[in-house]
Design brief:
Layout: H1 4-59, E1 76-81, H2 91-106, H3 108-113, E2 116-121, H4 123-130, E3 136-140, H5 149-164, E4 170-180, E5 183-192, H6 215-292
Parallel strand pairs: 1-2, 1-4, 2-3
Antiparallel strand pairs: 4-5
């Protein structure tokens, strides 16, 4: 049975842990506000350029571009976006499991042949896949400490170059999409080749628009901008989702610590009462023995 000193020491340890989790929650909350502002600022441009490009692709039936070319799948790249730090619940493992599920279902043969590459954005994904039988060609730990658009532009430029040179035939990205502080959705999106989404209503893409110089030229110029915007939004979404997950996890940890402290305090009081009762009994027994003597 634990002594009073042991219980008191454990209560002190839990209180110290509670202070840490509470501080981490507050830090995550402060950073989340800035991350949400960044998402709000980036979403309109990202959505509009995707909408414009999508409508143009659906209108220009005979258009062809190497970046939109569907070809035989010989080599693929999967980008896995995770965080650089833990203590954020199932945030990282959800993305890792989804990536593994996609690899096992869609790219199993390519993996066996050594024709599947992984690009890990974030330390946790790199730690996981780097220790297993995966060909990790892109290793980018610590990018969220100083996230810059230049990194995205450089990454997309390299992927476009390799795709045009037929070194890779498909690029998919797995990440956590930010919905709210308590909700993150796992998304698996195809970056390359670019393909338009089916639209039920194309009234906004009417022939009333005037294109200068022409639709194919505009589409060609939009492709790199579209990929950059999508990848930038993905990183912003993932970072905000990470902070939301960490904020929720630390809030739960703080509440659990509070409950554990209450339970330990009750145990401590019971043990102290039992100790006092035992001491009183010893004193009374000694006094009675003296009287009899």
């Amino acid at each position: 049975m634990a002594t009073l000193r042991d219980i008191k020491s454990r209560i002190t340890g839990v209180k110290n842990t509670q202070q840490i989790t509470k501080a981490m929650k507050m830090v995550a909350a402060a950073r989340l506000r800035r991350a949400q502002d960044n998402i709000i600022n980036a979403r309109p441009y990202s959505r509009k350029i995707a909408e414009v490009l999508n409508n143009l692709l659906l209108l220009e039936k005979n258009f062809s571009n190497p970046l939109a070319e569907e070809r035989e799948l010989k080599k693929a790249v999967v980008i896995v976006v995770t965080s650089d730090r833990g203590l954020c619940g199932g945030f990282n493992m959800n993305a890792i499991r989804e990536a593994e599920q996609i690899i096992n279902s869609e790219f199993a043969e390519l993996k066996r042949e050594g024709n599947l590459e992984l690009i890990c954005l974030g330390k946790k994904g790199l730690d996981h896949f780097g220790k297993r039988n995966y060909e990790v060609t892109g290793r980018y730990p610590g990018i969220f400490a100083d996230l810059k658009y230049e990194f995205v532009s450089k990454l997309i430029s390299e992927l476009i170059k390799r795709f045009l040179n037929r070194e890779i035939d498909q690029v998919k990205v797995v990440y956590n999409e930010f919905k709210s502080v308590v909700q993150q959705n796992i998304v698996a999106a195809q970056l390359l080749p670019i393909k338009p989404r089916a639209e039920k209503d194309l009234e906004n893409a009417s022939a009333e628009y005037i294109f200068e110089p022409d639709k194919p030229s505009i589409i060609n110029s939009l492709f790199p901008r579209y990929l950059n915007a999508q990848m930038w939004s993905i990183l912003l979404e993932s970072y905000a989702a990470e902070l939301g997950a960490r904020m929720t996890a630390m809030d739960m940890a703080t509440e659990n610590a509070k409950e554990l402290i209450r339970t330990l305090q009750i145990t401590f009081n019971k043990e102290r009462q039992a100790s006092i009762t035992s001491e009183i009994l010893e004193i009374v027994s000694g006094a009675n023995a003296l009287k009899k003597g």
